Amino acid sequence: MTTRTVVHMLRHGEVHNPDKILYGRLPGFALSLLGQQMAKAAAQTLAKQDITVVVASPLERAQQTAEPVAAQFGLPVAVDERLIESANWFEGKRVSVGAGALRDPRNWWLLRDPFTPSWGEPYTAVAERMFAALHAARVAAEGHEAVCVSHQLPIWILRRYVERKRLWHDPRRRQCALASLTSFHFEDAKVVGIGYTEPAAHLIATSPTARNARGA
């Protein structure tokens, strides 16, 4: 008999980041008020699902995004270090195009290889740890559904890895909006489908900050 399980990868909501830096794995970056609303919108979207497991990256913004989902189902929020944001050597710096750290010639060496990439954690390493986290959640929620709260790049790399696509990509083309759900549908241990929804799209549409968000 086939066992059907769903694992939803939920990207965290908007982060309070007035200095517009690449916050990466830095501590102390919590959800903004809008981000908290996004987390609630995601929870409401999942309200009728059969959620039995909630897991999150250890970073504060991911934990906060997981809370309304977990509370809705009376579940604890487990921590999985493998769901954490990708390491990036520009962490703590401003990196908008044409500004900040990217204008400093001393940093150009870090941009030499977009395929690995040279500025941070290798895409293959991200894919492997996220794939392991995906299957750990599948096993924990076998026959039901799990929610894993992570970050934009790791979720997008996981999707490309599962779809057997090359891992290097144009960051502007990622389909992983704030508080979005990338849902992996399993039959036994095999992924048979991937869905994508944006529960907070109506909130993003009203916020220029959220529309332009390229954070983690």
Provide an overview of this structure.
With 216 residues, the chain is an alpha/beta fold. It has a single domain (4-211), classed as Phosphoglycerate mutase-like (Rossmann fold), CATH 3.40.50.1240. Helices cover 30% and strands 17% of the residues. The protein is built from six helices and six strands. Helix 2 (60-73) links the parallel strand 2 and strand 3 (78-79). Helix 1 packs parallel to helix 2 and helix 3 packs across helix 4. The protein is globular and about 60 Å long. 39% of the residues are buried.
Tag the structure with descriptive keywords.
six-stranded mixed sheet; alpha/beta; Rossmann fold
Remind me, CATH topology? Rossmann fold
| Helical percentage | 25-40%
Specify the CATH architecture.
Answer: 3-Layer(aba) Sandwich
Q: What is the helix/strand order?
A: EHEHEHEHEEHH
Strand order of the largest sheet: 3-2-4-1-5-6
Average pLDDT works out at 91
Q: What is the overall silhouette?
A: globular
Determine Rg (CA atoms, Å): 17 Å
Low-confidence stretches: none
Q: Could you tell me the number of beta strands?
A: 6
Estimate the strand proportion. 15-25%
Structure summary:
This protein has 216 residues and is α/β, with parallel strands linked by helices. It has helices at 33-45, 60-73, 123-140, 152-162, 201-204, 208-211, and strands at residues 4-11, 51-56, 78-79, 145-150, 181-187, 190-197. It has six helices and six strands; from the N terminus they run E-H-E-H-E-H-E-H-E-E-H-H.
